[in-house]
Design goal:
Radius of gyration: 34 Å
Helix content: 55-70%
Distance between the termini: 75 Å
Largest sheet: 7 strands, mixed
Number of helices: 25
Amino acid sequence: MATTNIDVNKQNVVDLLKSGKDHPFIIPEYQRPYAWSDDEIITLFDDLWEFSIERTTSKSAKTYFLGSIVSFENDQGEKEIIDGQQRITSLFLLLRAVYTKLESEENKTKEIKNFISKIQPALWLEDELTGEVDKTKTLLRSEVATDQGNEILRRILETGQTEKDAKDNYSHNFNKFVELYENKAVDNAMHMFHFINALLNYSILLPISADNQDTALTIFSTLNNRGLPLSDADIFKSLIYKKLTAGEKKSFAHKWKELEAEASKHGETIQSLFNYHMFYLRACDGDVKTTTSGVRKYFTEKSKNRLKPEIIDTLADSLNLWKVIRSGEILANESWSENKDILKALDILVAYNNEFWKYPTIIYYNQHKDDPEFEGLFLKFLRKLCVLLVTRYLESPSISAVKGTILKLNAAIIKTPEPEFVAGFKADTSEEDAISLIVTPPRTMVRMLLKILAYDNQNQSELLPDKWEIEHIFPQKWDTSFFTLDSDETNKTLEHIGNKIPLEKPMNIRASNNYFDRKKEQYSKSAIAITQDFGKSNRVNWIPTDIKLRDKEITDQLTRLFAKWVDEYEPTPVPEVKPVPTPEQLEQIRQLRELGFI
């Protein structure tokens, strides 16, 4: 088993930043852009200011902890920052702002000269013989792939100046630090030296240095509680970016940033798109193993070369499916995206309890979307997939019950738009058991079943509203004095599928625990057709007997519907075409007949 080396050594700000002369700090390509705003900048400055005051008035205020910095030493001997890039970048900007103000003083006191000499080696490389600094050689460099400000940061650290009217975060935050410094200097000029001293010598960081990237990422994921940890996609971005020419890098960075924004807009991430694409590639390779490596290991597997620049376009194309599913977007030249039956089938699948509906769906779309018959084939496929997922989950409500089947289906989809797969209850599931499974489904399956029932209503032309809840027609909390019913029997039937309908959240709140005749007014206002039907009903009461009758109606309805969806999917048999005999074969046949052999 390989050993992992981790170095943890508490350091003050000036000592930590000075260590960059031997191992420069690098914000790598896969990191996210610098994003600290006024809130974080002002908080950092004010906290340090308050600490510096406490140090001069109280013996208890010895050090101020700024947090941890997680890094690893790359092949070039640089410290790649895995965690703490926002903090360390801001500290460099703050020190540059302080240095700029000190350097601009005409009367350079001993204190000013002292702090200038302390700050210089924390920002720039020094000549070993003369001690002079080269301001073009900063100890921090950003290479973030999607950040256009990398050059701006370098210029600010070198010159201590920003472009007029600059809007980027580096310029804004540098100017904010200058402003905060100047405001404090006006009010309390003498205390500024105590502030600088506290910042350099008594503000503490905890650098955690790992011997490789994977270890550093693991440490980061464990420690991080301030936001999203680096994803595998961030690493992939870096690996692709490094292989590109200067011209290609700009285009790639633009595409990545655009895809990131588009994915987020539609409830996805680039990370999830890579995950879906992994299952597509696995299907293309015929890989049906149920135990596989993670996404990062899959895409970085040596000799496979799966991370090509054009993958960004492939992911963008696959996002189109999720634009339709998540946002109801209509795609140009893709008529299926307006097909209400397809949209209903997809909406049913969204209610499934785990992610395994997504993989065959995206694989089918990616592989067959250009087929002239795609629209009809896709609808049939989605409906049969619904039947497969519902029945398997009812029989065994776990991922393992369907995982192997789905992986085999994924591979079959690559070969044909009409892959063979068995849907419906298993042969050894009796009719009685099947009925029982539908009547008392797991809670996680109820929404999916109600969607199927709702969309089977011929008056349900539109998709169900986004926010609806499961309404218990006979209330969960019922007054035993109002109904003279057997409590045990009634309580058993409350969670039956026959006692549940979909209802918009505001109406569900108003319906509350009222009884059927009082709820009908809310039901009749619903945009959901099956719920409207209950509102228009002549019924006055709804009791356990009615629940059981509806249980029977629903099981019959779903049994018929599932059979229809399975049957309509079955590939049309291709008639056998008998080969036409050649003239030579016809002559042989004539001769054999004359001889009496045939």
